[in-house]
From TrEMBL:
A Pfam family: 7tm_1
PROSITE patterns per the UniProt record, alphabetical: G_PROTEIN_RECEP_F1_1, G_PROTEIN_RECEP_F1_2
Membrane topology of the entry: Multi-pass membrane protein
Domain G-protein coupled receptors family 1 profile: 64-315
Chain's gene name: gpr132b
Protein localization: Cell membrane
GO molecular function: G protein-coupled receptor activity
Primary residence: membrane
Protein name: G-protein coupled receptors family 1 profile domain-containing protein
Length: 377
């Protein structure tokens, strides 16, 4: 894991240095694509589906992530390693969901940004950060499960919360630093009133798109496929699990990879296409490619938001044990609301409730704590 993080830092800073050396050449290449940047794109074609999609994601994702933050926080207090990654993932998704109304309004207004340029940059900054922090945290979740299941005995001394916290902090810092150039872009200005629209390719942006495709999509996809396949093989070979449990693990492993592909493959494939076409002057001089790719591009951005709504359902709330304990907790809260203290021994009553609450919390979100017999979350 440490070697991987060092490699990410190396690639990031090498790319920054490489991009700086081509600033003058970038100006020339930008002039070639002026025609494409002035294309009259069909901004209203994606309005209805995107606004509906953003609204559904917000309605489902907001309460689901709030519940998940509570559940994973309880798990973190129980010193569970996987809870660190899941809590960070939910907090990241919640921050992004708070910016979703602004994106929905922007699309509904025909891609006219009504707020300040800084608001556009901050919103875009959180969007890109959320996407790649989520992707890397998903890799951490799968890797942690892989180690806990395949190397259950050997990993007991290695899987520690301090290491999980350190990995999460490094991921957040690297992604934050990588997207700082967002604040130097001419986005959300008063004249254009556009916010991170395509058709503004430069050599730096093209190189950044290549890096995002390889580091932010292709490499994580390999990690997810390899780890989930190994988990599935280990579980299928286990004699301590029932067939229904093995089937459930198989469905979960497949769902993780499919969700990743559905949410992130369209966007990154289009990024790759845009990067490749930047080197073809013939396509840069006309609007044909931009007009054809624009609606799929915006819809792919919408698909990437599905990740924020499905993550808590797939990774946390899909657990039978968690649902049972969550129902127990809700019943306890309802019972506490209907039973008010009627005597002078209210302090003893509160102590009794506190004890029951801690017992409920201790049973919620038992994620990857045991070895191969507990891989359902």
């Amino acid at each position: 894991m440490r070697k991987t993080l060092k490699m990410l830092f190396f690639i990031f800073f090498v790319f920054e240095d490489h991009a700086g050396k081509y600033t003058m050449h970038e100006t020339t290449m930008t002039q070639i694509s002026v025609a494409a940047t002035n294309c009259n794109l069909t901004y209203f074609d994606d309005r209805v589906p995107l606004v509906v999609l953003y609204s559904v994601v917000l309605i489902i994702g907001l309460p689901a992530n709030i519940i998940t933050v509570y559940l994973t926080f309880l798990q973190v207090r129980r010193k569970n390693v996987l809870g660190i990654y899941l809590l960070s993932l939910s907090v990241c998704d919640l921050i992004y969901l708070c910016t979703l109304p602004m994106w929905a309004d922007y699309v509904n207004m025909g891609h006219q940004w009504r707020w300040s340029s800084m608001a556009c940059k901050v919103t875009g900054y959180f969007f890109f950060n959320n996407m790649y922090i989520s992707i890397f945290l998903l890799c951490c979740v799968s890797s942690d499960r892989y180690v806990a299941v395949v190397y259950a005995v050997e990993s007991r001394g290695l899987r520690q919360q301090r290491l999980a916290v350190a990995v999460t902090v490094v991921i957040v810092l690297v992604v934050f630093m990588g997207h700082v150039p967002v604040f130097t872009m001419m986005e959300g200005n008063v004249v254009e009133k556009k916010c991170f629209e395509p058709g503004q390719s430069t050599l730096t942006v093209t190189g950044f798109n290549y890096a995002r495709f390889i580091i932010g999509f292709l490499a994580p996809l390999v990690v997810l496929v390899v780890t989930n396949r190994a988990i599935l093989a280990s579980v299928q070979a286990s004699t301590g699990l029932q067939p229904c449990q093995k089937e459930r693990v198989r469905y979960l492993a497949i769902a993780v990879v499919i969700l990743f592909l559905v949410c992130f493959a369209p966007y990154h494939i289009i990024l790759l296409l845009r990067a490749v076409t930047f080197h073809i002057p013939k396509l840069q001089k006309t609007c044909d490619f931009e007009e054809r790719i624009y609606t799929p591009y915006t819809l792919s951005l919408g698909l990437s938001t599905l990740n924020s709504a499905i993550n808590p359902i797939l990774y946390v709330l899909s657990s039978d044990n968690i649902r049972k304990e969550l129902r127990r907790g809700l019943k306890y809260l309802r019972g506490r609301a209907t039973l008010q203290p009627r005597s002078t021994d209210s302090s003893q009553h509160k102590m009794h409730n506190s004890k029951n609450s801690s017992e409920v919390a201790a049973a919620i979100l038992d994620v990857a704590k045991h070895d191969r017999g507990r891989v359902g979350v």
